[in-house]
Amino acid sequence: MKRKTKYVNYTKWGYIFLIPFFITYIVFSLIPLISTIYNSFFENYMSGLTQIGPKFIGFDNYSSIFFKSELPVYLKNTFVIWMMGFIPQIIFSLLLAAWFTDLKLKLKCTGFFKTVFYMPNIIMASAFSMLFFTMFSDAGPVNNLLNSMGLPTYRFLAEVAGTRGLIAFMNYLMWFGNTTIILMAAIMGIDTSLFEAAQIDGANSWQTYKKITMPLIKPILAYVLITSLIGGIQMFDVPQILTNGNGNPNRTSMTAIMYLNKHLYSKNYGMAGALSVILFIVTCILSFFVFRYITKDRFAEKVMKRKRGDSCEN
Amino acid sequence: MKTRKKHEKLMLNSQRGFAYIVLVIISILCLFSFYILIINTTRSHPDIQKGFSLLPGKSFMNNLKNLLANKQLPVLTGLVNSFFVSTCSALLATYFSAMTAFAIHIYDFKFKKYAFAFILMVMMIPSQVTALGFIKLVRDMNLMNSFIPLTIPSIAAPIVFFFMKQYMSSVLPIDMVEAARIDGAHEFRIFNQIVLPIMKPAMAVQIIFTFVASWNNYFIPALLLNKSNKKTLPILIAQLRSADFLKFDMGQVYMLIALAVLPVVIVYLFLSKSIVRGITLGSVKG
Amino acid sequence: MKKKLFSLLLVCILVITSLVGCGSDGDKEVVKQKTDDQDVVTQTTDDQEVVTQTAKEQGKVLNIYCWNTEFQDRFEYFKKSGKLPEDVVVNFIVTPNENNAYQNALDAALLNQESASADDKIDIFLVEADYALKYVNTDYTLDVVNDIGLSEADLSQQYQYTKDIVTNGNGVQKGVTWQATPGLFAYRRSIAKDILGTDDPAEVQKALADWTKFNEVADQASAKGYKMLSGYDDSYRTFANNISAPWVTNDVITVDANLMKWVDQTKSFTDKGYNNKTSLWAPEWSADQGPDGKVFGFFYSTWGINFTLLGNALETSKDEGGKEEVGNGIYGDYAVCYGPESYYWGGTWICAAAGTDNASLIKDIMYVMTCDAAVLKQITVDTQDYTNNQAAMNELAAGDFKSDFLGGQNHIKLFAESATKIDMSNISPYDQGLTEEFQKAFKDYFDGNVDKDTALSNFYNAAIEKYPNLKK
Which of B57, B97, C102, C336 could make a disulfide contact with C67, Cβ separation 3.0–4.6 Å? Predict the structure, then answer.
């Protein structure tokens, strides 16, 4: 009898400890989400100091986003810029992770390099982009450098490739360190006896890498890809500040969230709501993969804890 | 056999050399902008306008003085605001995420599975997509220009929770909690006095991560804060970008960026080891 | 059970203290302010009542919304007059102009005006001609005569156009300004001598009298290795002020033919290398105005001479101990003339916000800074800014006033003639936002990234994003 009461007590505590999280989540995330969805069906904006609406208009906001706005273009921009940053990011991260974990190579100062590589990640994106803006402006340090080497001034922010390139480059700098460290952990989690066996069989570094490392870290690569893609959809601070919210030139560096920000900024709640819902659905679909990944083959379980080679067959 | 070994060694050495060259180049890429930043904080505006330099100037104190005296940019207030908001959210996020993780990890109850699944599912939803409703809510609550909407919501931080849960699974056996119960400790006390100390390393890492995330946050604060005595550093920096009259002195511009960036960099350099370790544990991009 | 309750209580306390702890910064202040005695006035909404009440009891905090430091600097003249009570705190709430940030901040504050505590209410806000009507046409602004108490005689010496801009449909004047801002073309004397053989403002004006001549001079300048203008937007205002219809009529956006003339001229200047591809206010643009600049001239306005051009012209800045005198950089190498078309640029109007608890102080400020001939004359003498008092300006124009910075020119004489000619009939509340988007959109065209039609359609998109009620 006593035991039972005690058990019930404990159960209660489980709920009690969850209260702060759920109350906060409901108030500050769930209610806003519902109100966002609700707002997306209304015409509701400010014209000067006068409020227009709210007036229920059904799916009109959605249809004007799909058929009249340039959201597809901005989604494409976001995707292109993300890709431009992600490809070098994953290539370098794989290379660096392989080097750092290579038992034969025995690189020194890896701690230092890791510290340096991760550093751009902690930098305020807005400060980082302001810095890049001044550095790459028409008369900034970088163009000074080009001129002193006898090269003509390159107007980075007036060229599509220049602007997108800069944004992608900054994204790359900010995230490759992070990815390298995650991949390293994945590689280090692989049973060392596998590598030893390969060595005995006379496999060289590249063969070991291709036949053992790559297949084993595939799941974590997928995880990195999807989380990076979700991060990519959220791309805002860097292009916003670098192009001053315009996405110049010709809006080729305008990202989806920048577009959303424009509507939020002009207090056009209906359009902003519809836009948010669309982006929400996109992230939900992507999140589903992350969720599957985390719950099914957990990083910790699959790569780090499994010391047996049987996952080789996957 | 010998020649093969020699050959291998040569290969290895050249590979190592190549690796170091690449590593150094990437390091330079990472550090170059910081270097320029620091150099330019020490140069005067006309000096900066004249062109690029690798050598520092002598105007560091002058730039700092001018920036702090600038009526347009409440830099000190911005620093204090940023520090206050970031500290609050870091502490709230870590404490309550640990509590949530504790609830999910130790207790067995009906909705546990659903609660856990729910948190994991919402983990990746960015704050931007609910921003509209969030602003409306904040306005209705009359909390514009207040720090409450920037701090309290961090109580529900799914990513921090996930990290805590991962860590807890590896360090906190249920026996330990049961032993404490037998000693008559109360659940809340068990959490505060036994579990939290064990979680210290994870908490430390997450405090830094959440602090940095909040320190760097721009999107939401920019929509909520418009009073100059409430603005945080990222907003002041964005203001630099859009307000042309502030660009009359590039020395001040660089100085402000440095003030926003360097505190975090210094803390990072001191704690880089545990931070780098922490990334692996959480392995979730925020 | 007790223990359990106790710990539950602890949790609650923890949550609450953390809530309070984090909110304290904002809340305490408000609480403190509310305990101050003057919140008696807080709830009054009727303008008339506010005035009568505040005549007895004035607020101790004066909140001024503005977008840069210019007014803050001019405010020193009011402080010198000794009319600012010692116990009044003046807060300048500065929000930069770009991307409607200032208007958004101001709108939010005005909409909140009724519920704000007395010391948080806006007392004064500044507006520009480009969107003055947006506020003048509402009840958020007070009548300077009937509400504030300035007399018609006080206002009589102000230039008519400065009053028109802030007068609503019923003929009620809702704001005042201390400056009149006729446009000008500021050119480098040394470069003019090189190209035209003269640096005399009258002669240079003849050479630049219309756009055809202007373009010819641009050819000559280019041949000698100079740039005619610095950036894309330099000549924009000159065209934009001579449009034949407002930007917006009945919610429909009209792109005037004159604006397209600007587009064509700028494109041809850019392609021929007659400008430096800079943007207004960018560091490169400022640098072009300095000692190393190779640009013939800049379209500017009265205030720009002192507010920006002077500082940019110095080799050693004032902060670093440089003096404002001939020999420091190109001090003395500028002169001004009308340019090809008459126009105005800028100007800042002072509006009193409905709900203020400082009405009599506002009256003093408005009087001293915009009606007092002696003060206005002094501002012009000190800063070379052109102020809004016809009598004082005509006196200076007729006298031997000269500017050392402009190589001894009496530029006030020039302005005294042009200020009376300014016509503000084609303004609309959307001018600022649309001008900004128009310039942004066509920057891509000048940069060669898009063709003219794409730039135009980008402009329409951006305009409608900014003002959802407008149509193409």
Answer: C102
CA distance C375 to C75: 11
Could you read off the pLDDT of B238-261 as tens digits, one per residue? 877 666 555 567 788 889 989 998
**Cis preceding linkage at A249, omega within 30:** yes
Query: How far C391 CA sits from the closest chain B CA (Å)?
Result: 32
Residues 3-32 of B with CB under 8 A from C: none
Q: Quick check: A248 and C440 CB within 8 A?
A: yes
> How many cross-chain Cβ pairs, B to C, lie less than 8 Å apart?
87
A touches which chains (3+ CB pairs under 8 A)? B, C
Cβ atoms of residues A261 and A245 within 8 Å: yes
Place of tokens 């004035």: C58
Give the 3-state secondary structure of residue A50. strand
Most confident of B153-162, C3-12, C44-53: B153-162
Task: Please tell us whether the domain made up of A64-313 is placed in CATH 1.10.3720.10.
Answer: yes
Proportion of chain A in helix, strand, coil states, percent, rounded to 5: 75, 5, 20
How far from chain centre, in Å, is Cα A264?
Answer: 22
User: What domains, with CATH codes, occur in chain C?
Assistant: 47-180+346-387 (3.40.190.10), 183-345+399-466 (3.40.190.10)
How do residues B159-215 score in pLDDT, each as one tens digit? Answer: 889 888 888 887 888 888 888 888 888 888 889 998 999 888 888 888 888 998 899
Question: What is B65-282's CATH topology?
Answer: MetI-like fold (1.10.3720)
pLDDT for C256-315, tens place per residue? 999 999 999 999 999 999 999 888 878 788 888 988 889 999 998 888 887 788 888 888
Please state the rounded mean pLDDT for residues A137-152. 86
Do strands C124-127 and C61-66 pair parallel, antiparallel, or not at all (unpaired)?
Answer: parallel
- Selected residues 137-166 of chain B with any CB under 8 Å from a CB in chain A: 137, 149, 152-153, 155-156, 161-162, 166
The pair of structure tokens assigned to C193 is 């001598």
- Residue A282, number of CB atoms within 10 A of its CB: 16
In chain A, whose CA is at the least distance from the CA of C446?
A: A158
Q: Record the pTM.
A: 0.80
Render pLDDT for B115-174 as a digit per residue (tens, 0 to 9).
Answer: 988 888 888 788 888 888 898 899 888 888 899 999 999 999 998 898 888 888 878 888
CA distance A45 to chain C (A): 7
Distance from CA of B274 to the nearest CA of C (A): 27
Domain boundaries, chain A: 64-313
- Give percent helix, percent strand, percent coil of chain B, each to the nearest 5: 80, 0, 20
Residues in chain C closer than 8 A to A250 (CB atoms): 444, 449-450, 454, 458
* Chain A residues touching residue C282 (CB < 8 angstroms): 137
Using a CB–CB cutoff of 8 Å, tell me whether C429 touches chain A: yes
Do residues C336 and C305 lie in contact, with contact meaning Cβ atoms separated by under 8 Å? yes
Nearest CA in chain A to B137: A32
Contact criterion met (CB < 8 Å) for B92 and C22:
yes
**Mutation site for C-interface testing, chosen from A12, A49, A241, A261 by largest number of C Cβ within 10 Å:** A49
B185 to chain C: closest CA residue: C3
Q: How far is CA A241 from CA A237, A248, B230, C259, in A?
A: 6, 11, 20, 29
Token reading at B227: 């009073």
Tracing tokens 């939803």 back to the chain, one arrives at B125
Domain with CATH 1.10.3720.10 in chain B: 65-282
